[in-house]
Amino acid sequence: MDQALGLRKRTSSRDPWDESQPLKAPYEDATVRTLSVSSGKGGVGKSNVVVNLALALDRLGKRVMILDADLGLANIDVLLGLTPTHNISHVLEGSRRVEEVLIPGPGNIRIMPASSGVQKLTQLTQEQKLLLVDLLDELEIDVDVLLIDTGAGISDTVLYFNVAAQERIVVVTPEPTSLTDAYAFIKVMFTRHGERSFRILTNGVADEKEGRSVFAKLSRVADHFLDGMSLDYLGWIPRDPSVPEAVRRQKALLEVFPGAPASRAFMDIARRLAREAPSMPKGTIQFFWKRLLQV
Ligand SMILES: Nc1ncnc2c1ncn2[C@@H]1O[C@H](COP(=O)(O)OP(=O)(O)OP(=O)(O)O)[C@@H](O)[C@H]1O
Ligand SMILES: [Mg+2]
Fold first, then answer.
1. N or C, which end of the chain is more exposed by having fewer CB within 10 Å?
2. Domain residues for 169?
3. Is the Cβ–Cβ distance between 245 and 257 less than 8 Å?
């Protein structure tokens, strides 16, 4: 199981005298790019974005982990027809090890279900936080990208994950309420946490023109009211009947309809993400957890 998940313990790391193994700087394996996916408004396609972007990056050879931090009902596990029996709260209680909580998704994706454990993360004592970081530290997980489905709304938990992530993707649809809720989310992140950098992904749009126009509307308001705000246009995903069809089948769109327009759009966005240099130095996965837990 551990092997299937691509996990290995620190203790079994490479033999430094074995020349048949390629030499790598320690940070090459250990660094991870963390991206959160939020929206303000619910039901705009966050979880679909997380799953399909994860699979698209997987296809490009990236090692991807999803952190399902959504407390709602339409979780990643439901979208993919998975039934996790444990989540991060079991790790906190000490009844399960971290690697026992991870579940394999499509491709080589690994999913860490957090569900109810997520709320507990924000309420841990210092001692529990240190214990959790220690537990996570024991794992040497080969991950290039960690995608976090933060769920709808602007609760403390959602904000918390957005502060810890290096890059923030905000999903917006052409619906006016999606725009106002995305703006409310960005504004709270800016006023409370001084966060100025967001990447906007327009979803469920008719064409490229509509995608651009949705972005322009949000950008205009943000530029006007939030000083120093920088919204970056990540791209657009078309409204595509294959998306709800894949949801009904509880499969990732990219798996069942790889040629669908939305699948091609996910691949385009993944290629763009994979090509660019991360906006800030990548940290280790432990660094992300420590930031999240503010240890
Ligand atoms: N590009 C698209 N084209 C057509 N339908 C879409 C598209 N993206 C999402 N949907 C539909 O919207 C619904 C909601 O998607 P999803 O569950 O990913 O949203 P969410 O933002 O994660 O919701 P929640 O806030 O409840 O977690 C899905 O049932 C899906 O079929
Ligand atoms: Mg969701």
1. N
2. 30-293
3. yes
Q: Ligand 1 within 6 A of 247 CB?
A: yes
Question: What is the DSSP track for 11-43?
Answer: GGPPPTT-TTSPP--HHHHHEEEEEEEE-SSTT
Structure tokens at 60: 């490009």
Ligand that lies nearest to the alpha carbon of residue 41, given by its number in the listed order = 1
12, 121, 237 from 160: Cα distances, Å: 33, 10, 27
Is the Cβ atom of 46 under 6 angstroms away from ligand 1? Answer: yes
Which range has the worst mean pLDDT, 3-12, 24-33, 89-98? 3-12
153 lines ligand 1 (CB under 6 A): no
Give me the CATH number covering residue 263.
Answer: 3.40.50.300
Task: Give domain status of residue 83, yes or no.
Answer: yes
User: Could you report the per-residue pLDDT of 228-243, keeping only the tens digit for each?
Assistant: 898 999 999 999 999 9
Q: 6 or 235: whose pLDDT is higher?
A: 235
pLDDT at 217: 97
**Could you tell me if residue 13 is inside a domain?**
no
Total domains in the chain come to 1
Which ligand 1 atom sits closest to the C-alpha of 238? 1
240 close to ligand 1 (CB < 6 Angstrom) = yes
Examine residue 184 and state whether it is found in any structural domain, yes or no: yes
**What's the pLDDT band for 93 if we cut at 50, 70, 90?**
confident
Under DSSP, is residue 122 helix (H, G, I), strand (E, B) or coil? coil
CA angle 33, 71, 198 (to 5 degrees): 40
pLDDT of 199: 97
26 Cα–ligand 1 center, Å: 39
